[in-house]
Design brief:
Helix content: under 10%
Distance between the termini: 40 Å
Strand content: over 45%
Mean pLDDT: 92
Largest sheet: 4 strands, antiparallel
Number of helices: 1
Shape: globular
Strand order of the largest sheet: 6-2-8-9
Order of helices and strands: EEEEEEEEHEEEEEEEE
């Protein structure tokens, strides 16, 4: 069981709907929605409440629970918890807002938070299998291919350093975090 706290920091009341959405990662690290896939955790999680209204400054705790079937193979499974503002209820929840003439084009607030369930013996090995460095003017571009094996998702923390002409090693970029979802054997990461 985990909890997530949601706070309405705006100046109007907002209605929210919560659901689970499966996203898979492609070899460039881009996630795309799918209906279902082999490593989905969507059917293993429950959360309450599923919808609620928050006035300005109010806070709501959402409880997320997982139940893994007893015959589930060891490994990591994932989905994303989707928090979506229900803009259709904005006028209903803010009856005194918008007095006078106005044009309405409301934007909905949305957040997707990865939810990973680890079950049994989980392992993941990561390696850099290919790296190219190219100079473009006074900038460098590093193209990496990261490989993942095992039954878990991979998380790589990559530091890029540069050796100066006088032999000092200096940081070239802030540390980069690169995720490799379980459905991938490898993915690329490009940094300038």
């Amino acid at each position: 069981v985990e909890t997530i706290n949601i706070t309405n920091l705006s100046d109007i009341a907002r209605a929210y709907k919560i659901s689970a959405q499966d996203l898979v990662m492609d070899s460039k690290g881009i996630t795309t929605p799918v209906e279902n896939f082999e490593y989905s955790a969507k059917r293993m999680i429950r959360f309450v409440p599923r919808q609620f209204v928050l006035k300005p400054g109010e806070r709501q705790t959402v409880r997320i629970m997982s139940r893994v079937p007893s015959d589930q193979a060891d490994g990591e499974y994932h989905t994303h918890i989707r928090f979506l503002e229900d803009v259709a209820k904005r006028a209903e929840n803010n009856p005194n807002a918008g007095q006078g003439a106005a044009i309405a084009a409301p934007l909905a607030y949305e957040a997707l938070i990865p939810a990973v369930i680890s079950h049994g013996d989980v392992n993941a090995d990561l390696s850099i299998t290919d790296a190219d460095i190219a100079k473009n003017g006074n900038k460098y571009r590093v193209d990496l291919t990261l490989s993942r094996s095992g039954n878990g998702q991979g998380t790589a923390y990559i530091d890029y350093n540069l050796m100066t002409p006088d032999g000092r090693v200096v940081s070239a970029t802030p540390r980069r975090t690169v995720y490799i979802y379980r459905e991938l054997d490898s993915r690329t990461k490009d940094v300038e």
